[in-house]
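Researcher: Re-running this chain for the archive, since the previous output was lost when a drive failed. Same request as before.
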Amino acid sequence: MSQQIAPNPLRLLAAQTQTVKPKETKMTAMTQTAPDYTAIKTKQNAAWSSGDYAKIGVTLQITGEELAEATDPTPGASVLDVAGGNGNATLAFARRWCNVTSTDYVESLLDGGRVRAEAEALNVSFQKADAEALPFEDASFDIVTSTFGVMFAPNQNKAASELTRVCRSGGKIAMANWTPESFIGALFKTLGRHVPPPAGVQSPANWGATSWVQEHFSAEAASISMKMRNFNFRYPSPRHFVDFFRTYYGPVHKAFLALDAAGQAQLEADILATIDRFNVATDGTMIVPSEYAQIVIEKR
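Model: Regenerated structure tokens:
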């Protein structure tokens, strides 16, 4: 499914009707519930540094190639890969003769991307960077991209604002994000039932929702294109998937470590049940289509 979303620069905010007395009480409550993004990112960094995400990431390479094609990149275009992990989008754009800067806040992931780029003799710059505070000037890049990366930034508003800021007028913001209805969206919910996320942090799958993308990008967009695609998770068996993700995928790895033996057994059972809901294989293997949004935004 492909759809064009008209930009809506005159969005109006609904007035708050709740009355809070006294005023200081409201401010205190807001202070107490505001997420500590620095602490959250420290924990996230530890999670993504655990396991070995590169073993998961390389299986998703096709999504980076398809996203690069969707932007119709011009050779020599300047490209910023945000939360680039081990470099799927980075390599895809570099293979199309773009000048790519690959960023992430996890050094080990950048190291993995660097090794992959060197193996193909691709000219890529690598730089550690926080998606919520990108160390680049305004309007620095022709294309700003992310595949299943920036969506995990805890301060979603700030991360979306940063993508827009560093993209030049007439440039493109290109993303591949899991949708709330997808298998990975369901996996997030399963993990959250066992190990609740920090208070105030929203689901990463918001980034794959049409309404969320329109809300955060339409004010500065000339056009927004969203195409729903599927990535097939193919594994020898559902249990192999659980074991593989438990070992190598940081968020799942950390979730299991946070639980006692009984909790781990229940989490495993719930993940297997989630897989069963989506699995289309009939021979004991696992073929699970997971919907994601392929998004290309042209900046005004």
